[in-house]
Specification:
This protein is an alpha/beta fold. The protein is built from eight helices and 39 strands. Helices cover 16% and strands 35% of the residues. It has a seven-stranded mixed sheet. The protein has a seven-stranded parallel sheet with strand order 16-19-22-25-28-33-36, with helices on one face. The mean pLDDT is 92.
Amino acid sequence: MKAVILAAGEGRRCRPLTLTRSKVMLPVANKPILEHIINALVENDIKDIVLVVGYEKERIMDYFEDGINFGVKIKYVEQKVQIGTAHAILQTRDMIIGQDEEKFIVVNGDNIIGARAISDLITGSEGDATLLASKKDDVSGYGVIVAKGKRVSEIIEKPKTLVSHLINTGIYLFRQDIFEMIEKTQISATGEYAITDTLQAMIDNGMNVTMTATNAEWLDAAFSWNLLEANTIVLGDLEPDTANANMEDGVNIKGSVSIGKNTTIRAGSYIVGPVVIGDNCDIGPNVVILPSTCIGNNVSIASFSYIKNSILMNDVRVSTHSNVSSSVIGSNVSTGPNFITEEGDDMLIQIEGELQSAGKLGTVIGDDTEIGGNVLVRAGNMLSVNCRISSGKTISEDIPTDSIVI
């Protein structure tokens, strides 16, 4: 069976992180979201993948290449204009039609999914098309499935009132004749060709569209701070591995901690897992790293710094006496000494004109930003890419791209 992974979009709600990479390349447990999806497919013996790319496609193609290093065979097709999921799937028709297996899987490339979710879809599929559903108490912001037994009667996008607790995960099993139905799909009010509109048309025409529910791992990292939640979930399965690390005397490690090759952990440092640290890092001395933290490759964290529940991407440099909590820091960010991210609970963050609940959050910082010493970032405020923050500043509002704060 082939799988189509939709990876053409930007992920605007994950800005500023997606200003320099697509959402599918955002790291969770030091691997891109897309890599976790591919691993879930491989565990189900699905190794023939068509990857629909578009925004920042070079980063995706350079990382995954032909897929051989990930145990799969990848072919790429470009969606030159991102005008909906149905349109994206249609781009793969020539690679799907005529294959021996009549059915194929479609997966959104920006969700964290477990292998069992794919298995549940395959074993529970029947009819002309099957949707994978997940039960959620809060269904706001999702497409909701209304079904009688397994048969779907309606798919409602972002309903204003509660009609069902079953949400559409964006994972499907289709027959090849789905392409004929997609060609008949009308453009929506939002200017896109949505696969949910195709499915609703199939339902309205009496075709048998079914759903199967899963309680397996599935998480939509809709906003940048959702990466922290995804990180915590994925790290729950972390296997400890410190064999390749260079650890000085006096290092104290507890719990599941994985440390990459050529990484030095200096004396007096204290690490409590689950924690992942990449290759070629320099940590300490006397650094504290607490659970649900991921540190990328080529990262340095200087003495007496404290990192908790955070994601530090590649090539980050944190200076002495810094305190980073519940934050996501993009690639090639450097801070001066005494850098502090304030942590807030039940945060409300404005994204594209709407207030969104962020739960616990420090900050989100885009790539290539340079921060001076003695800088405090108030909880919930974000710094965009390529910013320069002078020493001694308190950041109490979002900082746009290419800003200089003096």
